[in-house]
Design brief:
The chain is an alpha/beta fold. The protein contains 9 helices and 10 strands. It has 2 domains: 190 residues, Aldolase class I (TIM Barrel), CATH 3.20.20.70; 68 residues, no CATH class.
């Protein structure tokens, strides 16, 4: 994404303090872009929002970018406890590099920075969940059942997992396929994530693709969009997107929503119309 476009988005949303978090390169790899520190500086200067990134942590040479003082949260996608399983899940032999970067950040991060791991559970890695938790003991781990949108993300069906045995040992984990993620805290306690009463799903964010296209959701294909940021008012597009979620095929097929998601969206539509 051009630098001017990133600044345009930040400048626009700087007028809305409700925007609490800014995530750069959500569908890309932030450690591959030398502009990350500059974006962190610019966002901090122009907004009161907190900054986070998602990274696969495989670019050890760019590890210094992770400890930028304005970067509050680093979420590392690492869905394996061994090199062999990593290759199956992530499709590349980069496990050692990812672990090396993660450990370096763990040792060198600022006191104000938070580290968490995203572990996407599939049939290829479910047997390593406990090994992974032991390996990263003392760090927040978010366990996600494989995100599935039947008819939208067909390939995901090939990797669907069976119910892992360790989940059956904890009573409040039995509905794990209907609720995501599961938090495993540094002290070892486990808790299912419960979305707030006004949230219909995990995707409450405003997502812009690298070319300026306003995405319906970062998990949904780009054909579900609301035009370009230079052609649309972004707040209006966000409201339009929220109303459309009640009938959008990607939303109706998604497994990352509350049981009462439709009621919440209808109530949102009524409230937004009144204002």
């Amino acid at each position: 994404m051009p630098t001017s476009m990133v600044k345009y988005i930040i400048d626009y949303w700087s007028h809305y303090p409700e925007m609490q978090w800014y995530a750069f390169f959500l569908d890309g790899e932030p450690l591959l872009d030398h502009r990350l520190p500059m974006f962190c500086d610019y966002a901090t200067q122009h907004t009161k929002g907190k900054l986070l990134i998602d990274t696969n942590a495989t670019n050890y040479a760019a590890r210094e970018r992770l400890i930028h003082p304005n970067l509050r949260q680093v979420r590392i996608s690492l869905s394996a406890a061994t090199r062999e399983t990593y290759h199956k899940v992530h499709g590349a032999d980069l496990y050692n590099k990812a672990v090396r970067t993660a450990k370096w950040f763990q040792e060198n991060k600022h006191p104000t920075q938070k580290l968490s791991f995203h572990y996407m559970i599939t049939k290829y890695n479910e047997h390593e969940i406990n090994d992974f938790l032991e390996q990263w003991n003392g760090t927040l781990v978010k366990l996600f059942p494989l995100h599935q949108m039947p008819g939208i993300q067909e390939n995901s069906e090939n990797a669907l997992t069976e119910n892992p045995e360790w989940i059956n040992t904890t009573e409040n984990m039995k509905a794990w396929k209907q609720t995501r993620p599961i938090y495993v805290y540094p002290d070892g306690t486990r808790e299912r994530r419960v979305m707030r009463s006004y949230m219909s799903c995990q995707g409450m964010s405003f997502c812009v693709q690298w070319n300026g296209l306003i995405r319906h959701c970062s998990d949904a294909p780009p054909e579900y969009n609301y035009g370009h940021i230079y052609d649309q008012d972004m707040l209006e597009a966000w409201h339009k997107r929220n109303r459309a979620r009640a009938t959008n095929p990607a939303c109706t097929a998604c497994n990352a929503k509350r049981p009462d998601w439709l009621r919440i969206l209808r109530r949102y539509g009524q409230t937004e119309a009144q204002t």
